[in-house]
Amino acid sequence: xxxxxxxxxxxxxxxxxxxxxxxxxxxxxxxxxxxxxxxxxxxxxxxxxxxxxxxxxxxxxxxxxxxxxxxxxxxxxxxxxxxxxxxxxxxxxxxxxxxxxxxxxxxxxxxxxxxxxxxxxxxxxxxxxxxxxxxxxxxxxxxxxxxxxxxxxxxxxxxxxxxxxxxxxxxxxxxxxxxxxxxxxxxxxxxxxxxxxxxxxxxxxxxxxxxxxxxxxxxxxxxxxxxxxxxxxxxxxxxxxxxxxxxxxxxxxxxx
Length: 256
What we know:
Layout lengths: L4 E4 L3 E5 L8 E6 L4 E7 L2 E5 L5 E5 L3 E3 L16 E8 L5 E9 L4 E8 L1 H7 L4 H10 L11 E2 L2 E2 L1 H11 L8 H4 L4 E2 L12 E4 L9 E5 L4 E6 L4 E6 L5 H8 L1 E6 L3
Antiparallel strand pairs: 1-4, 1-7, 2-3, 4-5, 5-6, 8-9, 8-10, 11-12, 13-18, 14-15, 14-18, 15-16, 16-17
């Protein structure tokens, strides 16, 4: 039996915890990203994303994938990936697309979109380049639970999207990302740019927050306590930073 594949018809399709409109948004699926259809309950479709993440999307957001499209594309597509662009389709209709959307038909008429070869030159798998993207492309992003784009993101969605742009696949949630890469011995005293710091506010130490290292003394993250994208100095006397560092558990190195 062939695998059923679908993709969003809208710039962003919410991926929900349960098959109802008022359910919590767990993540998002971007325009042009193909997902596997696992089950259906009325108009609700349970799907699996390329990173293995599962959730529910309403059929109003989706269309069937075209013949030859696979769920392994997404951020790694050889075609054009939106860096924040306006798309015009064959009927002349226009649509704004966020960073990470895939252009499968139509053309970019404003903003930027880039094919894979160019992206690998502009966004290499290098720590300093990843830091630059984290600082620049998400600047001004507000905090949104389950979000993965500069239009709204949570801590792990921000980290996953930044690394994906540079060809480095990460899992979706902070606790999952905390299993990737290698442990940094020495904690914050030994961190390098593009390392990830993990935090927990739970008694069982389950990871609840992730931040990306800019330098030995600064991090960038998308945090509800800051309202969104923020750069913090680890030695700051600020009450928020002091509380955050009290929840620090360990660092992981993804690059190098």
